[in-house]
Amino acid sequence: MPELPTPPPEALAHSEKLTALIRSEITAHASWIPFSRYMELALYAPGLGYYTAGARKLGREGDFTTAPEMTPLYGQTLARQAAEVLESGLDQILEIGAGSGALAAALLAELERLERLPRQYYILELSPDLRERERDLLALKVPHLLERVIWLNRLPTLFQGLIVANEVLDAMPVHIVRAGAAGIEEAGVCVQGENFGWAWLPAAAELRAAAEALDLPRGYQSEIQLVACAFVRTLAQAMARGVMLLVDYGFPAHEYYHDQRSEGTLMCHYRHRAHGDPFFLPGLQDITSHIDFSAVARAATDAGLDLLGYTGQAQFLINCGITDIMLRTPPENAAAYLPQASAAQQLLSPAEMGELFKVIALGKDYRTPLLGFASGDRRSAL
């Protein structure tokens, strides 16, 4: 594991409180909890979890940077797809987990420019701290549009419009399994002295069935995203008509469970350093896994949604006209153009975000072909 910065005393005290909470839960459950429950507590325990406490997560001062924080170019380009959906008679957008609010600000500003503003822009945000930061950023960037923004504590019912979720599924708790000598085993967390450690038990029926369907070789270890798939089914139930755009890093199943990924994709992020120890300073680091987009597509179609498109982030952004938007800044204006060109390189390069990140579109009662998948649609790979 790389050498990681030492947090200040108040952050250490915060982590110790969460550690004590997790330790007490393990003790109360026969000295073992599933890793999915550990991850849920580490990220979302009220007032203590990584996403529910007050420390800054995003951007240079945080632990990682997402595409919307990197450049408004991302949201401006995504707005082209949003505008097309809104032109079909839909007039609402729902963003799941808006982070800093950067994507909402860029989307709203560009949709105003395109004269396709939604009647309402809903944000489902469970973190009080992030909700406050989103409001502050929107008040700074698009103050005249703030009245259109409504924060929600739960999903609306019978929603008609566009749902956007950028790097949301990867932060949902995962179950970790391995193909053992006696069958499929599930990874759990136990207490080992002053620390947490791994402990394996036979997997329960639903998880075992999901893992057995993958036909994993002996010794293979990976994640199964029951929670993310359940969330997609919940979104399907909440939608009456419209489109969902889910953007995240991941692969179709035949790539996700490749021989070269025999230890899974679980990853932690702390102060812009990536490492593989989920037990390091609970509450102070992000814990994620890549997404199995085949499983997401299957959950969606089983719940009555249509698979409208699937492609790499670079192809999606090119289809939506990112190069045209870049040219609104004259290359002769080097001070403005060069940082934008550098950010675009990160968004589009196969060696960076362009191929690792994917965009999947799901819909209900929506028949219009989507701009972002006009070329290079890879639905057949799922």
Output the CATH class name.
Alpha Beta
The amount of beta strand, in percent, is 15-25%
Number of strands: 16
Return the CATH topology.
Rossmann fold
Main β sheet profile = 8 strands, mixed
Domain count, please report it.
1
Give the low-confidence spans: none
Q: Assign an overall shape.
A: globular
Secondary structure category: alpha/beta
Provide the fold topology.
Layout: H1 9-28, E1 33-34, H2 35-44, H3 67-70, H4 72-86, E2 92-96, H5 102-113, E3 120-124, H6 128-141, E4 149-152, E5 159-166, E6 175-180, E7 183-192, E8 195-202, H7 205-212, E9 221-224, H8 226-238, E10 239-251, H9 253-256, E11 267-270, E12 273-275, E13 286-288, E14 291-292, H10 293-302, E15 306-312, H11 313-319, H12 322-326, H13 334-348, H14 353-356, E16 357-364
Parallel strand pairs: 2-3, 2-5, 3-4, 5-10, 10-14
Antiparallel strand pairs: 1-7, 6-7, 6-9, 7-8, 10-16, 11-12, 11-13, 15-16
Helix pairs in contact: 4-5, 5-6, 8-10
Walk me through this protein's architecture.
- This protein is an alpha/beta fold and 382 residues long.
- It has one domain (29-373): Rossmann fold (3-Layer(aba) Sandwich), CATH 3.40.50.
- The chain has 14 helices and 16 strands.
- Strands 2, 3, 4, 5, 10, 14, 15 and 16 form an 8-stranded mixed β-sheet that branches. Strands 1, 6, 7, 8 and 9 form a 5-stranded antiparallel β-sheet that branches.
- Strand 2 (92-96), helix 5 (102-113) and strand 3 (120-124) form a beta-alpha-beta unit.
- The longest helix has 20 residues, at 9-28.
